[in-house]
Design goal:
- It is built from three helices and ten strands, in the order H-H-H-E-E-E-E-E-E-E-E-E-E.
- By secondary structure, the protein is of the alpha/beta class.
- The protein has a five-stranded parallel sheet, with no helix packed on it.
- Helix 1 runs antiparallel to helix 2 and helix 1 packs parallel to helix 3.
- The radius of gyration is 21 Å and the shape is elongated.
Length: 188
């Protein structure tokens, strides 16, 4: 009898769908918003994610990122992103994913959130501001609305030029002791 030689079967790569690539892109955008990726890293990974053909390749693009909002174990209905700065600026612009809850802490810096080209997976979004000495400018997409009733100031001001009804709807809360908050709709 001739001994049977076992051969290792090589599993074929499972092809990724457009939806798989979209989920990976969303996860990368969340990681960028959380400060886990630089703009350069995001750009390189997005290019790879959009051209990747296999599930293994997509997993490799996000293998060093934790599960969480936008990740396999995350629940997008409850996602929260916290952005912090002591004295520098916090800026988000261009195409980025807006989480359900965005918490911003900036002791002395300025905040600029341009939501005009952002992706809103939720029709209602909460932005919580903690800006003791900082100021914020928030630019909404056309048709969006804002509610600033939950914002408290001591010596600062709140100027809201946005409608009170519309979608997406952005609810703002928090404290701006000496800072100013300006909310307007995109002019572009």
């Amino acid at each position: 009898m001739i001994p049977h030689e076992e051969t290792a079967a090589v599993a074929p790569l499972v092809r990724a769908s457009d939806a798989d690539r979209d989920r990976t892109v969303q996860r990368l955008q969340v990681a960028f918003a959380e400060g886990r990726l630089t703009a350069g890293e995001l750009e390189l990974r997005l290019e790879r994610a959009l051209t990747e053909r296999s599930h293994d390749g997509l997993r490799a693009v996000t293998s060093d990122l934790p599960d969480g909002p936008g990740g396999p174990a995350g629940d997008l209905a409850d996602d929260t992103v916290r952005l912090r700065s002591k004295g520098g600026s916090i800026v988000r612009e261009g195409e980025w994913r807006v989480p359900r809850l965005l918490r911003i802490d900036s002791k002395y810096g300025k905040v600029r959130l341009d939501l005009s080209r952002a992706h809103f997976p939720h029709s209602e979004v909460d932005i919580e501001l903690r800006l003791p000495y900082g100021s914020a400018t928030i630019i909404l997409p056309a048709g969006a609305s804002a509610d600033v009733d939950g914002v408290r100031t001591k010596w600062g001001s709140v100027k809201c030029e946005a409608a009170r009804t519309g979608r997406p709807h952005v609810r703002l809360t928090g404290d701006l002791a000496y800072g100013d908050l300006t909310i307007r709709t995109s002019r572009g």
